[in-house]
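Hi R.,

As promised, here are both runs. First protein below:
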Amino acid sequence: MTGRIDGLPPLREVIRAHGLEARKSLGQNFLLDLNLTARIARAAGPLGDCDVLEIGPGPGGLTRALLAEGARHVLAVEKDPRCLPALAEIAGIRPGRLTVLEGDALALDPLAHLTPPIRVVANLPYNIGTELLVRWLTPPDWPPFWQSLTLMFQREVAERIVAQPGTKAYGRLAVLAQWRTEARIALRLPPEAFTPAPKVSSAVVHLERLEAPRYPADAAVLSRVVAAAFNQRRKMLRASLRGLSPRIEAHLRAAGIAPTDRAEALSVAQFCALARELAPS
């Protein structure tokens, strides 16, 4: 399959017919190549027994691919009312399998509309992508509502998610993602794949949740430790983490970490060990 659904016009015709020029204010860059949208849908894994949450479907290129790849049900959340008629056309061809909601993805309760298992697949608007990812990685309870996340980001953000210790890209996103998921880059896309072409390359990241975090740690404490460490990443940890405890050097040593280390040198396991040390205080 190539993401095509019989009876629907090409996406460029849909954009012309509905006046859907991409808006920078909404972080829109449309992906019109149905072979590429099909590859993204397939990167999410088998969809036949899953509901799928899609954020920012725009004219519906990826939406078509998700349905063509057999998704049980797709919930498409779109903030731009101009896109709703185009999405309604897809819903008409696949009755009962596509629900379109106009609204803000940041305010959505997915479980009010979807039945587990749920996969999230989205060409995320650049202006909310990182915020949504952090929310999905840090829910109050784990495991979360989703089985996996297959998400398009600017390439620089994607590389930060999968980065390893000791590299410049390694930071808060890498620790939060790799603590609770298996994360990998599934696909890289050049700017010219999009309309309009952004100034940066993009990449699709696939994150498969772990049923339990890789190492024990309190999520709130770990988030505070990681944020403090990387907010001043050039400083030694004894300085960047001083605000967390007056005895921070003792805590670092108890966790097996040299107080003179810097944040990018620590593995996910070491960050979790430090969070356990700091939890009682």
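And here is the second one, sequence first, then its structure tokens:
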Amino acid sequence: MSADIQTIQSILDIETLEHNLFRGRSPSTSWQRVFGGQVIAQALVAAQRTVADDRFVHSLHGYFMLGGDPSIPIVYDVERLRDGGSFTTRRVTAIQHGKAIFSLEASFQIDEPGFEHQSTMPDVPMPETLLGQAEMIERYGDVMREEITRYWRRQRPIMIKPVAVEHYTSREKLDPVQNNWVKFREQVPAERHVRAALLAYMSDMTLLDTSTFPHGRAVFDSDLQVASLDHAMWFHRDDPLDDWLLYSQDSPWSGGARGFTRGSIYRRDGVLIASVAQEGLVRVHTAQKT
């Protein structure tokens, strides 16, 4: 995946095929499946194309049914469920090979004043004091498993600085809590709808891994089958996305070959801009069943 933010923007610039029908593409990648954040973001853009410019997404809820094939386009079919006085609702189905791979419902609202409160951002070190991808490999590469160093060597449009590195350097069983500073490498457009889609793209990163912490495991483990099952997101405030954001995550439960994780995305100054929840498949491969 290219580190150039323009690549993401071109991915989000989906093609209009017909009324309520759009087509998105995937970047050239070695991944066998389409990144879930890409599908979420493209589906959101498709919904935005059918909504008045003065209405902005405040929540989305999606389900992953099949892994996306990065070698072919994805068709997005938008259903206009409601156009009300203040709120607009859309349903989007992402289709490949004639089958639904993802479905999204999103709600949009005009800006309105109202009561305000929020949770407090965790007290963590600032990103300038933490290691980046290259520094992590340089310092801890000799104790990291190969699949983890391979993960950190990948060039991404989003930089990640984990507050704690124990999960990547040991098999220690840890509390199901993770804090990562994240930042887009390049300048983000000033257009608010685009920023919301980019934030949705980023929101799918690192979430599911948090549910493996208490078990001394990681999504990189070859005997685990890991995949997102659903994804929900609430957009609280617009943000220019031009600085580091703290993605604070916790996993209150896992079971039934599933893991559940919650996320809060804060600005550096502690303002909460979005909340996320995701459940995913975390299945341990066992001996072949007969």
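A quick note on the second one: The chain has two domains: 1-110, 126-290. Let me know what you think.

Best,
J.
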